[in-house]
Amino acid sequence: TWNTQSGNNDEYVANIGGALTQGTYYYSFRYAVNGSTCYAYGGYNGGFWNGTTHVNGVLTIDGLDWANLQFPASGGICQGQSFNAYGQVFESGVTNAAGATAGMIAEIGVATTNTDPSTWPANAWSAASFNAQSGNNDEFIGTVSGLSAGTYYYAFRYKLANACSYQYGGYSGAGGGFWGGANGNGTLTVNALPTVTATASQTVCSGTNVTLTGGGASTYVWNNGISNGVAFPANATTTYTVTGTDANGCTNTAQTTVTVNALPTVTAPANQTVCSGTNVTLTGGGASTYAWNNGV
Which of 116, 223, 249, 280 has a C-alpha 20 to 30 A away from that of 24? Predict the structure, then answer.
């Protein structure tokens, strides 16, 4: 499109576009008057293009040679746990040397939508760390944590510090590569923790058999040597914790307190000898209420 008047010349501007992939490109202008198809071609350094002194412009788009999401393709964790994924990147003459490449930036991204990771927001991404040299590739490890229960999607992105934009790596069973086509996102399932319950707290007398039972999970383990659903004698006030595990291997806990009251020290009158028919009064002590045998 026309840009400005430059002396006696009309100056034009053209946007080559941002969709060009990595590589070297050449560009020039051509002009025609009044809709004619007889074009004249302009070259750099002034004048009509001649291939020697008046030539094409050169555009170089730098980028990485290859990148991926290495593994795993999917995973599952419990809420509150972390998840590790791995990605690799290759740039000829750069990542070949052993160890981390200076200026190589790698990040792992997580989103709730299975979409092109280049569209994910900036806060979806966090730094990945160099993990190992894998042939000519740098391998990175990214850790995901702090997610609520649900399904998530993850990918890697990379760039050299002096590059303008990131390039995105995807997973495939064939080794993956730049995101797109057969190379897609990984899938992460975050399982909710079970809501574990325990028998209600209770107060009993010392030596009373108590049965504690957990609920809300698949299996249960109690502390203090207690077995789930098995009676035991309660001898001291204790708070018991049960750990319940569900079918996904996720765990949660619940607590209950058994308050144990000591047995009273009950007394009775001293033994005595009387004549038949003599009235005798027996009185218990050390407790609140008393019940005698033999109808007394």
Answer: 116
